[in-house]
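// run 5 | inverse folding | seed 20
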């Protein structure tokens, strides 16, 4: 597992752009924006800047002045799940949306303009997992990586990979790598030979109440300390911290129930 975007650096470098198909942004829509901002601000050290206004009550999270994620207000009349959503880069969001439809996916929102920031759509794959598509203008996406509090990986958790991997390959032009331990249904998606995201076929272990979904991993300097902080701030620890092939990992949820993973890369 490696970092989740193109043109990356290991020490918090800024990034100029993202190749098509690369996860470039993560966004969370919630009922209580202020309390959610307090949670993530205390956990990751984020500060917030409002906008773009076209997205309603929405704010961009900043770490040391660089944008890393977005948190917005769910419309009160829409009973949608509270979940982190990755946005995949596109040079032409309208064409990407049409390809999503042609390949058996659904476009739920857009394509629409977010003022001078860019153009977006929100879609779901044939199994129902929701993701965003972002065509950058002024807003290129996540501006810093490789430091605690930034997205480090995005992974689709689905029933089985064979039925959806062709969808993502066709829509975004990925190549695949299937170097996984025997018995593990796992595919790594690559852009220009670099791993950018993973597909994990969980089979019967996939929670019925969740269904297929994308999972965002945020980097942590100390996962155990971050897990303790999540508890202090009113979140939940769903899977305690444990060692993995890619570092120490824990699955947690914020006070509104949005799940995310914490990852501490091995030193």
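// decoded
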């Amino acid at each position: 597992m490696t970092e989740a975007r193109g043109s990356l650096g290991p020490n918090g470098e800024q990034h100029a752009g993202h190749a098509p198909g690369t996860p470039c942004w993560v966004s969370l829509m919630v009922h209580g924006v202020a309390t959610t901002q307090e949670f993530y601000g205390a956990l990751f050290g984020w500060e917030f800047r409002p906008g773009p206004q076209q997205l309603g009550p929405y704010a961009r999270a900043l770490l040391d002045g660089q944008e890393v994620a977005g948190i917005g207000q769910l419309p009160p009349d829409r009973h949608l799940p509270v979940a982190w959503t990755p946005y995949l880069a596109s040079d032409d969001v309208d064409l990407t949306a049409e390809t999503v439809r042609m390949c058996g996916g659904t476009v739920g929102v857009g394509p629409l303009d977010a003022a001078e920031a860019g153009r977006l759509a929100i879609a779901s794959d044939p199994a129902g997992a929701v993701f965003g598509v972002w065509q950058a203008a002024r807003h290129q996406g996540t501006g810093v990586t490789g430091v605690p509090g930034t997205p480090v990986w995005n992974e689709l958790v689905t029933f089985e990979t064979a039925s959806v991997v062709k969808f993502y390959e066709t829509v975004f032009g990925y190549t695949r790598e299937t170097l996984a331990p025997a018995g593990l249904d796992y595919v790594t998606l690559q852009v220009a030979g670099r791993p950018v995201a993973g597909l994990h076929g969980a089979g019967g272990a996939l929670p019925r109440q969740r269904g297929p979904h994308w999972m965002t991993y945020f980097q942590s300097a100390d996962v155990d300390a971050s897990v303790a902080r999540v508890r202090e701030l009113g979140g939940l620890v769903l899977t305690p911290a444990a060692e993995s092939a890619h570092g120490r990992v824990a699955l947690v949820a914020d006070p509104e129930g949005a799940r995310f993973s914490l990852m501490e890369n091995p030193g």
